[in-house]
Design brief:
The chain is of the alpha/beta class and 206 residues long. Helix content is 31%, strand content 26%.
């Protein structure tokens, strides 16, 4: 999918659905928050939520008082919804409208969190560009947290095909620049009560 088509698709999703009516909605993203908290260096560190959209994770990350906090998404519509929810606190966050497969350098972050972006990258070149950007963004010792559909998870989401991963196949895609340090399974319940199987992998930049 081209950058333009990806932007059009996701802007359309967020324009047509309420924030709590999408399958990935979590009122409190407890596991993501736990993994970010564990991965942050002492003193706060720098966190980027890749594909954060209108997720409530940023609300909770603000409470951790990181030295730098950014949310990146291809859909400006999603980020506007998150800003409106946060009100005045939105000024404490960097909002980046970009396609992660075509984004310029983002600067340096200690933690890169991605819940359900990578599994939408069905083309090898898109995955390669994603990994290259993550390698440029994270210093040695930084943490890459990726949540993707597990092998028994859905094969499609939001009318798009996805790639499903276990820890080994995800590590192989990320390549030798990242070492797996933790894997955690999650059974996510959608707003309408169905379950989706996720793998969360935490990788350290080598």
């Amino acid at each position: 999918m081209s950058e333009w088509n990806r932007k059009r698709h996701w802007d359309g999703v967020y324009a047509s659905k309420a924030v709590d009516a999408v399958s990935w909605y979590q009122e409190v993203p407890r596991l993501s928050l736990e993994l970010v908290r564990e991965s942050l260096p002492r003193g706060g560190g720098r966190v980027i939520d890749v594909g954060g959209g209108a997720s409530t994770l940023v609300d909770h990350l603000l409470a951790l008082a990181p030295a730098r906090l950014a949310v990146l998404d291809v859909a400006a519509t999603a980020l506007e919804k998150a800003k409106a929810r946060l009100g005045a606190r939105a000024a404490e966050v960097e909002w980046i409208v970009a396609d992660v497969t075509a984004a310029p350098d983002l600067g340096v972050f200690d933690v890169w969190r991605d819940r359900a972006v990578f599994h939408f990258l069905t083309e090898a070149d898109d995955r390669r560009r994603y990994v290259e950007l993550a390698e440029r963004t994270l210093p040695v010792g930084g943490r890459l947290i990726v949540a993707a559909f597990a092998p028994d998870g859905p094969s499609r989401c939001s009318d798009l095909d996805v790639r499903r991963y276990d820890a080994a196949t995800l590590a192989a895609e990320l390549g030798p620049g990242f070492a797996l340090v933790r894997e955690t399974a999650e059974r996510h319940e959608t707003p309408w009560g169905s379950e989706q199987s996720f793998l969360h992998g935490v990788f350290e930049r080598r």
